[in-house]
Amino acid sequence: MLEEKNKTYDLEERTFLFAQAIRKFIKLLPRTVSNNEDCKQLVRASASIGANYIEANESLGIKDFRMHIKISRKESKESRFFLRLVDTDGKENLEKERGVLIQEATELMLIFGSILRKSEAPKESV
Please, what is the end-to-end C-alpha distance for the chain in angstroms? Predict the structure, then answer.
């Protein structure tokens, strides 16, 4: 799954690895009605982070760019929410992995927030 020491700083790859780690984590969770529903949302949100970041990089202008970055930030928050919600049945290894994934979702949210703030900054004239 996600390992602290091996984090990549290519944001497109990092978002891909996050979505991939979410899928691996979900396979280990207990099969309950609520987990099934929450995991569907978690899969969608985690994939949407990277998909919208790719869209932002291919944007047609600054408004389009900012909209996709906002969506990536929103989906990071949503991923964090559903990670907190899923039931790990108290299993220590799953609790630990959930913590790592929540931390990554939080970091992605902060990164996209920073990108958004920088995209709003007025350009200095030369």
Answer: 46
